[in-house]
């Protein structure tokens, strides 16, 4: 038995999962992370880099990776010790139409990455507190979510500022990963 | 077991496609049903020994299921939703059989086996513990299942049945009723007793049954209704058996010992502590005895089980609890946080209290900590000692088990006690540490045990994971872990430690995850630097990746971007040195590490590590990499390299240690080269030095001259001679040659020493003597080095007389080395060389060649090869003056055959050097240096080389020469076209490269591209395509006329262009190239090449070349040519083929057998019988060709091939062929008395076949005598002496009415 198979067993026993938060800049990724981490969300400047936070939820240990604002995020998809179990794709629901296009293309490109195959995908339609926000149905259509075959996915509207419905989304992604990765016993 | 192996788990192809579903579930279910059907059928037959077909079918079915299911071995959880279905599907039919009368019929038991096999596969993939839960656990199952197990034959192959049944019974035994109430009392023993008896038996099995039995016995004996009565006797049995086996261990009894240890481990894991405590006093001595005993020393599995058992026993002494004192980093709950945010919505942010904070002993609720302290029994000390010793064990599995034990036991102890354990673990790092070496502050690890360090790392990681390594310890542990990151201890010619480095990375990674960032801050600078170095400069890919992951985790937790944060530039580095980029060792060192050295915070450490550790690495390729990295890094920080790196390297250059001096010499060279380039105005390694500064500027300072330059100049003059002669001299020489090359290219100060020439003399000595080395790699390095040194000494130098004189002496020396001591013998037939051309060349340039020189022929070979190689690299300055002589020498060498033997390497090198010289002369002007006559002679030499088919014990060594020669054409032909175009501007100049020569080159390439050796074919094909493309591309510059029609060129291009053509695949090459036979101007050479392939010996080659060949022949129009220019008639083709028989001996001898075999192919595909109707004479000519070819031949292979042809000709149909048939039969009759019995036999069989298989009545004329003929052919012993066969031959001739030649052997 090698080190990595032991790690895999440990991960299962300790119910750990690794989740990446991704999305275009200014989508609110860091705000969401800070919000679920219980930190002050009133002042957030563009994220320069990357943060790992560990949180507990429903008996699971979530290692949440926020790699906002970087040109190359390929470096974070995989490392020697662990693989990515879940992806949270954050969308600014009020963004300009051309940015929504970018958003769709980026997401489509991301899902093609084979290192992420099988990872559960949660889309947060963020900034619902703003009046011009699109509904999650509209965003689902713009992003062509119905065409995604390769991943379990779910879209949830939310507001990182108010914290609304963040919990619903997190509940979904955790239980989907749990169903997939851990045997309930 | 260790680190490096584990990589496969992540990197296997399966893993990448993380499967989110069990795609094959329906298929699997269907297949299982099918299997059940077959199995039940077998059971019904009851014999179980039913038809082999059924058994075969079930075995296939099981195999298929296994293959499908094993795909999920890496991610077994994906099967989870389907497990229950699959297991019950399999178990139901088994249950039905068990409950029926068949359940105890051995044959039926055997028939059920396939179903158990599939269940076992599931156990293997998902773990027995999970699978067992899905089995049925009905009280009514107990006795029938037991009976069924007893009835299963003890056949070794049925182990899966027994294993699964034992597991199943262990589940059924968990029924909550008293076993006495369900004991039907059928047997003499009680139910419990009989299970125990049975279980003990299985414990001794060599197969997996012992594991199942261990679980079964544990479940049985830890039941409330049995524990009182049965457990103690059983444990006593175990102890006495174990001790008995221990005292007299055999290869059989060791299995029982393993089983006993296994069952004890399970009992002490699953049993109730209360009921086991009384038994502990007897177990501890057992463990101690076993630990000391012989079984542990020889068998690592036993050792692991003993350590595990000791751990379990130890745990049993202690109350299970979570250490209250343990370290817990504050962990926030997502839901709580969100609830707070929700509550505070709209209000000003409030800092939410964080549970744990910095987390030192977070739980003040410490009341149960102390009162246990007194309860710790003395035995625990012994148990811990076993664990700590286990960490040192030589086997990884033992260390893992011990590390887990250390963690588990510490968790149940008081903080003081646990601290003692932690302290002992850390002490392990200090074992056998020697005092620091002089000049180093780091501990000397030369004598420590890698196993101990690995074990200690594992234990530290385990303790940290459980929160038992309190933050105060970090200060003590981190320095050791940091050393562990570069742990590498030399053992002979290699080193060990990759597993330690892997584990140390794991420790770092888990530290970052386990501790609050604030606690790690004091250590992060050390750790992050060490991690970066490991991630980029380690030799092993898994270690680099582990370090990269640990660093990533550190940045993610502690932060760091730009110059700020705990880890400066952390994020940039994470992006540069990620999982993917550190995957390739060369890229990790030369790209990633060099990039990271740009960051000031890490630069000094990275460069120092390369210079101090990598340059003396045991692996040669690492040292070479280190030197290349230092070259690049010098551009980043010259001052640092000059002051901190170079002075340290110089004394190592002549180190006694081979690795050290190799690495140091290489590195000094690279650094000096970079240094000079920087000072001469180059800012990066890619920017060339400006030519104006190349030779004039003095790029060093006076100070440097004294401190660095002089010592470096003197390295070679003072080099210990024995390093250049004894073991390892090849590596030393390679390094020194590289050093000379770099220094020469750096325009090293010439007058650095008192005597201007002394260091140069010794530099030349090294280069000259290395060129004469027998190792090709050394020669290669020396050749490059000589070119640089020659340029350094003479190129562009003043035209002073001394300098010119020296140069002439040098060239004369070089030329003398490539000459032969004795005049080369004349090429003899079969040597593979053209005699004629060589004779023609000898008078012209042979003057020098024939000079007699002393020396042994064999010893001369190596210098000849080396110097021939070096000439091709000499700088143009020298070639301008001496080019003609050198080309003449090379051309003579390409053709030379040395005293009957050959020196293939020398000829190969010479051919390649001709190309090199011409390429380099381009800038000078070839026509100015080389006369037309000499030029053509050198080209002729290349053509001769293209015909080189010499062989020796290594096989077709001529192929090297052919390759070297034909690779010349795509380079030389365009080059000469340009030269000629430039030259023809001068009136009256004749062109050098005539079209005729070009055409020969093209055709020669075409021939090589259908020949038999894959590599040659590929290279020839690639060269041909380059040449053809160049000729067809009008825009590429000067027009190249290949002397071949554009139609033909286009046909070639069409045939061989395209990425779908794989030259190594004969099925792909021949169908595309053979149709080119239709082109008149290409046919002859192509045919020549094809004949070799069709008559070859390797199966795929012959198959595809032959089928393409016959397809082509069959497609040719019969009769008169149909007018199309590019389609010859069959007759023309056969005539062209026959012309090959008339080729000169040096060509034909090589292909003689092939030619005859191809003749047979032509007859076989019906081509000859097609033309015989109107061109009978051609068939006769063909007969004549073959007959002449085997005339007086003593080559059996050739004779046998010819007999096949004669059989073919003797059976040609039609009236027109009568004459040929007669001749062929006559020849066969003649062979009936051939000197070789094998030929006689083959001939008699041939005659028989010819006479009996002809279908069209051709043999009707012999009908009367057929019986007599057959009688002679079949009943004669053709192995008897020739004299006694003569009469039979005369008889045969009479029957067949053929004339025998008058005079016969």
From TrEMBL, chain A:
Which Gene3D superfamilies does this entry report, sorted A to Z?
Answer: P-loop containing nucleotide triphosphate hydrolases
Annotated positions binding Mg(2+): 30, 47
A GO molecular function assigned to this protein is: GTPase activity
- SMART domains registered for this protein in UniProt: ARF, SAR
Taxonomy, superkingdom? Eukaryota
Entry binding sites for GTP: 23-30, 69, 126-129
What keywords tag this UniProt record? GTP-binding, Lipoprotein, Magnesium, Metal-binding, Myristate, Nucleotide-binding
Keyword GTP-binding in the entry? The reply is yes
Keyword Metal-binding in record? yes
The record, for InterPro entries, names: Arl2, ARL2/3, P-loop_NTPase, Small_GTP-bd, Small_GTPase_ARF/SAR
NCBIfam families attached to this UniProt entry? small_GTP
Its family remark reads: Belongs to the small GTPase superfamily. Arf family.
Which protein, by its recorded name, is this?
ADP-ribosylation factor-like protein 2
UniProtKB/TrEMBL annotation, chain B:
Q: Give the superkingdom in one word.
A: Eukaryota
Q: Which residues form the Tubulin-folding cofactor D ARM repeats domain?
A: 302-559
One Pfam family of this chain: ARM_TBCD_2nd
Q: Where are the HEAT repeats?
A: 383-420
Q: Which PROSITE patterns match?
A: HEAT_REPEAT
MF terms in GO: beta-tubulin binding; GTPase activator activity
- The residues forming a coiled coil are none
Instruction: List the InterPro entries.
Output: ARM-like (IPR011989), ARM-type_fold (IPR016024), ARM_TBCD_2nd (IPR058033), HEAT_type_2 (IPR021133), TBCD (IPR033162), TBCD_C (IPR022577)
Keywords, in A-Z order? Chaperone
Span of domain Tubulin-folding cofactor D C-terminal = 1000-1198
Gene Ontology BP annotations: microtubule cytoskeleton organization; post-chaperonin tubulin folding pathway; tubulin complex assembly
Is the keyword Cytoplasm in the record?
A: no
What this protein is called in its record is Uncharacterized protein
